[in-house]
């Protein structure tokens, strides 16, 4: 597997644009909202990392946000380069017309009139491709929490196969009642905040996010060295607590990039703050790395952005390294494994090789390896 360049990256999180989010991390000034989530017996109010400007009309607002991301990513590409640029979207969002149909007929709260427009999420990619004069090849990947991480792998494959000079990868996640209800029904939502790898963790906090990267054949400071994806789990919602499934994909990512565990300077974990997932991941880390490995979780800063987290967390991690540090993990005060503790202070760093983990429902697990050359 050959590496591809990461030319640009942009995000919009609950904390704002890329620079605003970076500042929030550096200053530990994290904004978090709350959302009412209808449940079987009663409506609960749960913490939620929401956009400051609420996405009111999903169809039009999402497209407007994606259009702004793409405009930033392609602004330096000429007409010929754009013709050799494809778009892949990664998201966990169900097609909106299906969501509207379910919400209009299934739940007892006030119903809205349902009128199916039969728009798929992939229609965003096709519209963006046409608007910006890009190649008409588009793809949308929906593999739960690994959606946009797998989109990055597929983009790398397309470039390595010489099918395209560039590929734009977008991650999308906005509030979804259906998604929130599902996590709440499985008792996976926190009532306080996220505490990755902490004995007192009580679940995840969901988050909204948009993110985009431009991958290319060009040599750049940042590169996607490669990675791996495996579909393997104990059951439909969880891996075994031994961490074997997670260790499998991490080791395969190292093998595919011809790297050793000792070549990895730091690890961006998936770190969902759910008991089973955190224990599985920490055991996997112990199987793959020695206890000196530096690792952290970004979800306490922006929430679990589900299908968008592949691109969003990758971009945010790169932004931190570009700013000279690996961000600490917030709220881990009572670690679940004494020999493997996420860093509790920002650590100086300007370059290196890093692994990024993403583990999703259904046993769809992905590890990516990125590299920044030293200046």
UniProtKB/TrEMBL annotation:
The organism's taxonomic lineage, starting at the top: Bacteria, Pseudomonadati, Campylobacterota, Epsilonproteobacteria, Campylobacterales
Organism the protein comes from: Sulfurimonas gotlandica (strain DSM 19862 / JCM 16533 / GD1)
Gene Ontology terms: biological process: fatty acid biosynthetic process
Top-level EC class as recorded in UniProt: transferase
GO cellular component: cytosol
Keywords assigned by UniProt, alphabetized: Acyltransferase, Transferase
UniProt xrefs under PANTHER family: 3-OXOACYL-[ACYL-CARRIER-PROTEIN] SYNTHASE, MITOCHONDRIAL (PTHR11712:SF336), POLYKETIDE SYNTHASE-RELATED (PTHR11712)
Keyword Ion transport: no
Membrane-spanning segments: none
PROSITE patterns hit by this protein: KS3_2
SMART domains: PKS_KS
GO molecular function terms attached to this record: 3-oxoacyl-[acyl-carrier-protein] synthase activity
Domain Ketosynthase family 3 (KS3): 1-372
Assigned protein family: Belongs to the thiolase-like superfamily. Beta-ketoacyl-ACP synthases family.
UniProt-recorded name of the protein: 3-oxoacyl-[acyl-carrier-protein] synthase
Pfam families: ketoacyl-synt, Ketoacyl-synt_C
Catalytic activity, EC: 2.3.1.41
Gene3D superfamilies: 3.40.47.10
């Amino acid at each position: 597997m050959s590496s591809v360049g990461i030319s640009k990256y942009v995000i919009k999180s609950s904390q704002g644009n890329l620079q605003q989010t970076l500042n929030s991390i550096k200053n530990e000034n994290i904004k978090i909202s709350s959302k009412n989530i209808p449940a079987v017996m009663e409506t609960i109010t749960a913490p939620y990392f929401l956009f400051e400007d609420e996405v009111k009309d999903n169809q039009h607002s999402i497209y407007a946000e994606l259009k702004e991301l793409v405009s930033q990513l392609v602004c330096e590409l000429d007409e010929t380069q754009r013709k050799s640029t494809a778009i892949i979207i990664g998201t966990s969002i169900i097609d909106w017309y299906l969501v509207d149909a379910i919400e209009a007929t299934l739940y007892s709260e006030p119903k809205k009139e349902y009128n199916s427009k039969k728009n798929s999420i992939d229609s965003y990619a096709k519209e963006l491709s046409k608007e910006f004069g890009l190649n008409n090849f588009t793809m949308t990947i929906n593999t739960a929490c690994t959606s946009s991480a797998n989109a990055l792998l597929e983009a790398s494959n397309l470039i390595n196969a010489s099918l395209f000079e560039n590929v734009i990868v977008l991650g999308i996640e906005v509030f979804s009642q259906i998604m929130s209800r599902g996590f709440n029904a499985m008792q996976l939502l926190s009532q306080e905040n996220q505490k990755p790898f902490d004995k007192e963790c009580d679940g995840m906090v969901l988050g909204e996010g948009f993110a985009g990267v431009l991958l290319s054949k060009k040599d750049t400071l940042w590169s996607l060295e490669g990675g791996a994806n495996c579909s393997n789990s104990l059951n439909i919602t969880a891996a075994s607590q031994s961490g074997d499934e997670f260790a499998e994909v991490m080791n395969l990512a190292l093998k595919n990039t011809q790297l050793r565990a000792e070549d990895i300077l730091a690890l961006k974990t998936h770190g969902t703050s759910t008991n089973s997932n955190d224990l599985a991941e920490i055991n996997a880390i112990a199987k793959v790395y020695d206890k000196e490995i530096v690792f952290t979780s970004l979800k306490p800063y922006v929430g679990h952005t589900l299908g968008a987290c592949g691109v969003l967390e990758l971009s945010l991690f790169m932004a931190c390294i570009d700013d000279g540090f690996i961000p600490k993990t917030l709220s881990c005060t009572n670690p679940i494994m004494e020999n493997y503790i996420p860093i509790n202070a920002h650590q100086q760093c300007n370059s290196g090789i890093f692994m990024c983990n993403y583990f999703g429902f259904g046993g769809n697990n992905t590890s990516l390896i990125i590299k920044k050359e030293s200046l």
